[in-house]
Design brief:
Length: 183
């Protein structure tokens, strides 16, 4: 039977404090799912089926793809420059975006519909390393628009931040003492 000791717990604690947050993973996943390179420029079903298979994304029945050249505009939705607060940590773009929505039969990659759309984006945004970034693409079936009265995303509010770790001198001294006396 495997036994753990205080050294193992300490190593796990230090490792967990310096690993990227779950939000960093959320931003990476957002980019992979919605702004992958090689996105087709057409609405051809065969081209999209081949593309989605190459991404390994046959498990999601509805997928929306933005063009990678729009990355800066997409990121701006999570800021005062390009977005307004929709609700909670959701921001809505001030301008509409053109994107492609692909509907497929789950598990088969059989494409049922490829549709180019032009709508305001609704994105879940979180703060990562002092920048607010998108982590989720929310559907906007009725093309809701931003309220003129809504505040800009990230306008002097810092709620819904992704957890970050900035070691202080006190934490470093504590870590050294624990290491020195525990081992």
């Amino acid at each position: 039977m495997y036994q753990t000791n205080s050294r193992t717990y300490f190593i796990l604690l230090v490792y967990s404090e310096f690993t990227p947050s779950k939000w960093n993973n959320g931003y990476s996943k957002f980019l992979k799912r919605h702004l992958p390179s090689g996105t087709p420029d057409s609405v051809d079903h065969n081209e999209w089926e081949k593309f989605i298979k190459s991404l390994g994304g046959c498990d999601r029945p509805t997928q929306s793809f933005l063009h990678p050249k729009d990355l800066d505009r997409v990121r701006a939705v999570c800021s005062d420059k390009g977005g307004k607060v929709f609700k909670d940590n959701l921001c809505i773009s001030q301008q509409p975006f053109t994107f492609v929505t692909v509907r497929s039969t789950p598990g088969t990659c059989g494409i049922r519909k490829v549709e180019q759309e032009r709508k305001h984006l609704i994105l879940a945004c979180e703060v990562l390393e002092n920048q607010c970034v998108p982590v989720h693409f929310e559907g906007n079936p009725t093309d809701q628009r931003p309220s003129n009265n809504a505040r800009g995303c990230q306008s002097s509010q810092r709620r819904n931040q992704a957890p970050t770790f900035e070691p202080s001198w006190l934490w470093l001294i504590f870590t050294f003492l624990v290491t020195f006396y525990a081992f």
